[in-house]
């Protein structure tokens, strides 16, 4: 993405001293500050990580962020470099062997302890009776199709290879996983609650991104996070509209950026709330967070009385672990990230849990702000 506009102003405000509330962007180091007990470098270590629960925010603050009315704009994606798949197979033959092995679990079976969700492969239609808890929503929030992208076989094609699992240490203790996607040569986008722990009032660390993750396998290796950015407002007044984070990744041991193997997805800002999108992620309730799951649906805007400026609702059965997963316009035909999974509020504002979630509508005043500095996105 080329966000050259206001780049110098964004850089100055990003690094300025002072409280986070006074800063448009807060940038921080995400490498481990202390010894990490997490081992994200092994198949067993990655499989053992538990999905991060959704963050809880006050959904009754409808004006947390103004609804950006700028003209819709897109930044195009880019496919992987020629020959990158062959290089990855030569570097990681054991991981490619895992891709050919039978999966350790079924991709559509809900995991114990996580809220059950409808299994994939069919359309789920919201009830239309007067008593339905979903009858207040415009658009098709409760209608979606869910399927698994890489359960039956590995899928390392573009754009799927630019989406992966994100493992990290939580500031308040333990480790967790989210979902993320590549949107620049060395940049991924995810949810802000995956980057910052409000319980500990501290940054999460030791980020490891695994593109095209499948049941422990890392077919193109793993990439460590170096720096991260969240909106300054998120640190002090978190909500769905500002729940996004960008992370800069280090190159691999051979000096290749993540995009050498994955390419990157395009991005879309200031688009209408009612768009057909594909949400992609690694939810714990479907396949235990080990497989790339997809929902396709038409987005909508939360009703009056809820946080709704720059907030999207979308029908989907994915829950914990899908946080940060991209919502994509024109999937496989341009593939522009328009939002990321944030989570769930309540029946009145979001719908029935396990059939719908929400996320920030990408706009000039959230993603555009995070990317308006050299070297980002």
Automatic annotation (TrEMBL):
Domain of life where this protein originates: Bacteria
Signal sequence extent: 1-22
Protein name: Peptidase S1 domain-containing protein
Domain Peptidase S1 residues, every copy: 173-344
GO molecular function: serine-type endopeptidase activity
Entry keyword annotation includes Magnesium: no
Keywords: Signal
PANTHER family, A to Z: SERINE PROTEASE
UniProt record, GO biological process: proteolysis
PROSITE patterns: TRYPSIN_HIS
Region feature Disordered, mapped onto this chain: 51-87, 103-125
Origin organism lineage: Bacteria, Pseudomonadati, Pseudomonadota, Alphaproteobacteria, Rhodobacterales
InterPro entries: Glutamyl_endopeptidase (IPR050966), Peptidase_S1_PA (IPR009003), Peptidase_S1_PA_chymotrypsin (IPR043504), Trypsin_dom (IPR001254), TRYPSIN_HIS (IPR018114)
Species of origin: Pararhodobacter aggregans
Pfam (any one): Trypsin
